[in-house]
Amino acid sequence: MARRALMVAILLAAFGAASASAEQLVVSLSNHRVAVTSSFVGENLVLFGTIEPDRPQAALRRAYDLVVTVTGPRQTLRTRRKDRVLGIWVNVDSREFVRVPSYLGILSNRPVAQIANADTARRLQLGLDNFLLPQRIGPDTADTVRDDPFRVAFVNLETQYGLYRESPTAVTFLTPTVFRVAIPMPANVPTGSYGIDVQLFAGGAMVARTSSALEVIKAGVEQFVADAARDHGLLYGLLASLMALVIGWFGSVVFRRD
Amino acid sequence: MQIYLPIADLPVNIFLVLGMGLAVGFISGMFGIGGGFLMTPLLIFIGISPAVAVASVTSHIAASSFTGAITYWRKRAIDVPLAMMLLSSGILGTATGVWLFTLLRELDQLDLVIGLSYVTLLTTVGALMINESVQAELRARKGQPAMLRRPGSHNWVHGLPFKLRFKRSKIYVSAIPVWAIGFSIGFIGAILGIGGGFLLVPMLIYFLRVPTATVIGTSMVLTLVTMASATVMHAATNHLVDAVLALILIVGGVIGAQFGARTGQKMRGERLRLLLGLLVFAVGLRFAYELVVRPDDLFSLRLVRPE
């Protein structure tokens, strides 16, 4: 009897768990590799996806929300603040932002504040305000309050450069279960590997999550020059000097008048 | 037509950069200067970071001074021993400059030092040039002859020891000021991305009494070597030389310089110096304005390191 009760309990638990996540996400990216060539002026990637029931019989809910977080390769940046010293404007103070994404796109179908409550949004790092941007504070690193002036300035500057963005219109539901996400890649996009985190919400709670990745690489001449400058600095410098001399000499020969 | 710059990491309009090269080349050919003090601010203005601009402009100046140096070599207007003496300390100055450049960049004060140095150098040199050419102009109006170099006139520089004789320039001077001038030009050039021709020529004339026949050619040799070595050093230590940007600038600069030289030869010396003085002074004021006026954004970002 006890054994039967236990089995029922296990079955119920399994059933319950399954119905709690009745959806799964299937996504596909238009292009997993963005090549930065000499004519690169930015590119828009498209992520398509559908919301599938994870069992054939499972019913899907009516209204879904989607938040897609795209993060570029991590880097450490310093935000500097100018102040007036002896009549001129000088950098007087700075904060180091440690291992923050070089690109951060938070794309959704409506403002994240309407998708989830403040606690959930904070826990799942939804939106630029809630994304963890650790600063070096003494020997430790920690994120500050969201209205910290350096944090605000950092996010503002990155937004001006087009590298950080929060777009509540980038996700479009084509049907209630088929969606399309526009991922903008500006011309100054950093090279490296990017992570794409796709979170599905229903009734203010996350019900499914999946991830994808893409890569931004320099290609052709751009790659050759950038690699050479980084890996063979001395040789690169010698060649750059030589190039200057050859063109300079060529100019004097072509325009010779005597 | 946009082209992506691999080190500056941003796309620029190729015709805009080529046009800048042409315009600065024209001015450099007209006045016999490298034009770095114009090119570096222009590049910063179109969005290239000051560090990349300074490092890339060095190769542009190397190219235009090489073109100039060849022309002066053919005219036998280069004092080779004097150039070699200047160079021996010029290279040392360049290396010190590149080292300080790296250090200042680390301390977030590079932009400030570049700005302050531009203001000080350009307004001072500009004012001196304007003053001198206005006075020459006034003398010419009054019908007095232009001030000639008095062969016997000596200043304190000529009292220094370790004297050397430079035959082509017909001067007999101490090695100390020659070394000091070479060092300071190399140093300033590496930090500010300028060849320093507009500083070197007056220094050679006033301190060492180098005659006008050899002064520009000799100055160009120094500019050429310090800038070529600054390119190599910036590339080897800071990895900031953008070869694609440099190539476009060089092509524009070399062509522009030829037309500038032709225009310059049609103008009177004093008039030319007055124009150059006004130009140098105006660029200096532009930098002063930037330092004094409250910037639009008090905050700025700098990449410490990629992970």
Give a written overview of the molecule:
- The complex is a heterodimer of chains A (258) and B (307).
- With 258 residues, chain A is an alpha+beta fold.
- Chain A folds into 2 domains: 21-218, Immunoglobulin-like, CATH 2.60.40; 220-258, no CATH class.
- Helix content of chain A is 29%, strand content 42%.
- Chain A has helices at 2-20, 112-115, 118-123, 149-160, 220-231, 233-254; strands at 23-29, 33-36, 43-53, 65-71, 74-85, 88-101, 104-108, 135-137, 140-142, 164-167, 171-175, 178-185, 192-202, 205-218.
- Chain A has a 6-stranded mixed β-sheet. Chain A has a 4-stranded antiparallel β-sheet with strand order 1-3-12-11, with no helix packed on it.
- In chain A, α5 packs across α6.
- Mean pLDDT of chain A is 85; it is low at 12-19.
- Chain B is mostly helical and 307 residues long.
- Chain B has one domain (2-143, 153-292).
- Chain B is built from 10 helices and 5 strands.
- In chain B, a hairpin with a 4-residue loop joins β1 and β2.
- In chain B, α4 packs parallel to α8, α5 packs antiparallel against α10 and α7 packs across α8.
- Classes of the chains: A alpha+beta (258), B mainly alpha (307).
- At the A-B interface, β5, β6, α4, α5 and α6 of A face β1, α3, α5, α8 and α9 of B.
- β5 (74-85) of chain A pairs antiparallel with β5 (299-306) of chain B.
Head-to-tail CA distance between termini of chain B: 33 Å
Largest inter-chain contact set: A-B, 64 and 62 residues
**Order of strands in the sheet with most strands of chain B:** 1-2
For the terminal residues of chain A, how far apart are their CA atoms? 113 Å
CATH architecture of the largest domain in chain A: Sandwich
Low-confidence stretches of chain B: none
Helical content of chain A, roughly?
25-40%
Quaternary status of these chains?
A: heterodimer
Per DSSP, the total helix count of chain B is 10
| DSSP strand tally of chain A | 14
Binned strand content of chain A? 35-45%
* Poorly predicted regions of chain A: 12-19
Q: How much is the average pLDDT of chain B? A: 82
Radius of gyration of chain A: 25 Å
What does the main sheet of chain B amount to?
2 strands, antiparallel
Q: Structural class per helix/strand content of chain B?
A: mainly alpha
CATH fold-level label of the largest domain in chain A: Immunoglobulin-like
The strand count of chain B comes to: 5
Q: Count the helices of chain A. How many?
A: 6
